[in-house]
Amino acid sequence: KQEVTQIPAALSVPEGENLVLNCSFTDSAIYNLQWFRQDPGKGLTSLLLIQSSQREQTSGRLNASLDKSSGRSTLYIAASQPGDSATYLCAVRLVSGGYNKLIFGAGTRLAVHP
Amino acid sequence: DGGITQSPKYLFRKEGQNVTLSCEQNLNHDAMYWYRQDPGQGLRLIYYSQIVNDFQKGDIAEGYSVSREKKESFPLTVTSAQKNPTAFYLCASSTPQAGTIYNEQFFGPGTRLTVL
Question: For residue B42, what pLDDT is reported?
Answer without folding.
Answer: 86
